[in-house]
Automatic annotation (TrEMBL):
Residues 282-489 form the Histidine kinase domain. Pfam families: HATPase_c, HisKA. It comes from Desulfoluna spongiiphila. GO terms for molecular function: ATP binding; phosphorelay sensor kinase activity. This is histidine kinase. GO terms for cellular component: membrane. It is found in: Membrane. The lineage of its organism: Bacteria, Pseudomonadati, Thermodesulfobacteriota, Desulfobacteria, Desulfobacterales. Residues 212-262 form the HAMP domain.
């Protein structure tokens, strides 16, 4: 069964959480907002009712007495009160479109005014039903809100008692059609829905981005682990967050594997080279004596020849080839059994300066410029000067031979935390990647006339000094050797 990719799982999981929480929160907020809107409507309507209460000076009977209609018929009294109060209710109603306001007389049991009178004036004189909440207001003297179908339709009706000297003489109402209120609620809910939908969409987009980013990092880590399976030198690129910590741990594990592999290779190389060295030493001893005899006999023959003898050309070739073989024999013997070392605490810059004196002549002949950059205040290193000089000599000779006429070689020494490093870098033709790994193998050479022992000797001497030699090369750009030697421990003498 195919597993769901983690980025899809993260996206679905977080999206569900966001959707559920957004919808739940939105529902609660909408209910709260709807309730708050209704409360605000009630406060507004009661405020209008209190305005009408403050405008009504005295009682309905006092108004009728002032007009001499105290004993008039019910219709006449209702008409007189309507004429006196109609303008007030109309002004209040017109100030708030959609609102209806009016007075109700308890003694006359009738609607006195209903503004705006142009549309609702025909309701004047009518009585409220027996179960109307207005009767509760007049009976108890307590404000009341009623939402129901009343005189002007489905409305929210806020009723406020008219209290004079402890007696409720009627009530004032202020109402608004529920259609208007519901329309406002619908508009508010629509805005809420749009906001919630937009929030969910943006949240999904953000979640998708995060899931994609996490998925990319996880895939990068997986690819890195796969690459490390075949190449322990591979490292996962740095990344932030907790996944970055995983990448760091994987890289640290790869470093452990690389160190272990390097140690195993070094042990295998040491065993292999030790056996090879013993064989080479025996062969070298057997070859050196015949070579010495051959050279001596050829030189003896040469003494009996005339200066213009054409055979001198061939005897010179024989002597040159014998010298080359003798050089190889010396390197074989040195590689197999290095001379006893005399290690002293020395300045590495001094060894470099002495070595450059030996190389400068050849470099000048080939128009190669050597640039030195000596580090300052370098710690002293405990080494065999002649052996380390041989190391730098072999590396520099290779560099001079690698660069073209007019090329450059840069030699730099620098301090490290617990030692010194010497870098020899040239701008020659470089070495093929497949050959770089074999540079320190005995008898491996990239030149037709090379012995293949120079860098093998370098590796062996550096190993004897518990150092490290590294090489980097790019075709067409040049080669860089880096030799690291441990510093003299504090408190040690000048040598051992």
């Amino acid at each position: 069964m195919r597993r769901i990719p983690i980025r899809i799982f993260i996206f679905i999981f977080i999206s569900l959480i966001i959707a559920i929480s957004s919808i739940g929160t939105g529902f609660i907020l909408m209910r709260e907002a709807e309730y708050a809107l209704l409360q605000e409507k009630q406060r507004k309507l009661f405020a209008l009712a209190r305005v009408l209460d403050s405008v009504l000076v005295g009682t309905f009977d006092e108004i009728l007495d002032s007009e001499g209609l105290a004993g008039a018929s019910r219709e006449a009294r209702i008409g007189a009160l309507n004429r006196r109060l109609r303008a007030v209710t109309d002004r209040v109603a017109l100030s708030e479109p959609g609102v209806g306001v009016g007075y109700y007389s308890r003694s006359l049991d009738a609607i006195i005014t209903y503004g705006p009178s142009e549309t609702l004036g025909h309701k004047v004189g009518q009585s409220i039903s027996a179960d109307h909440k207005g009767r509760f207001v007049m009976a108890t003297g307590m404000p009341r809100v009623q939402t129901a179908g009343l005189v002007r339709g489905e409305i929210m009706n806020c009723m406020y008692p008219i209290n004079r000297d402890g007696e409720v003489i009627g009530y004032i109402w202020s109402n608004e059609l529920m259609d208007d209120i519901n329309d406002q609620i619908r508009k508010m809910l629509y805005r809420f829905y749009v906001a919630i939908a937009a929030g969910i969409v943006f949240s999904f987009a953000g979640t998708a981005f995060i899931a994609h980013a996490v998925g990319l990092r996880i895939r990068e880590i997986k690819r890195g682990i796969k690459a490390i399976e075949t190449d322990v030198t591979h490292r996962i690129a740095p990344m932030g967050g907790e996944l970055g910590e995983i990448a760091v741990s994987v890289n640290e594990f790869a470093e452990v594997l690389e160190s272990r592999r390097r140690l195993e290779e070094q042990m295998q190389r040491t065993d292999r080279l030790a056996a090879l060295g013993e064989i080479a030493a025996g062969v070298a001893h057997e070859i050196r004596n015949p070579m010495t005899s051959i050279k001596g006999f050829v030189q003896l023959i040469e003494t009996g020849m005339e200066p213009e003898d054409v055979r001198r050309k061939y005897t010179s070739i024989v002597i040159a080839e014998v010298d080359r073989l003798n050089k190889m024999v010396r390197e074989l013997l040195y590689y197999a059994r290095p001379s006893d070392s005399l290690k002293l605490a020395v300045d590495i810059n001094g060894i470099l300066a002495d070595t450059l004196l030996l190389v400068n002549l050849n470099a000048t002949r080939q128009h190669v410029q050597i640039v030195m950059d000596y580090g300052e205040d370098l710690p002293r290193v405990v080494v065999d000067q002649e052996q380390i000089k041989q190391v730098f000599l072999n590396i520099l000779i290779n560099a001079v031979q690698a660069v073209e006429n007019g090329g450059h070689i840069r030699v730099e020494s620098m301090a490290l935390d617990r030692g010194v490093a010497v870098v020899v870098e040239d701008d020659g033709k470089g070495i093929e990647p497949a050959q770089v790994a074999r540079l320190f193998d005995p008898f491996f050479t990239t030149r037709d006339n090379g012995t293949g022992l120079g860098l093998a000797v370098v590796q062996k001497i550096i190993d004897l000094h518990h150092g490290v030699v590294e090489v980097e090369s790019r075709l067409g750009e040049g080669t860089r050797f880096r030799v690291v030697l441990p510093a003299k421990p504090e408190g040690d003498g000048d040598g051992n």
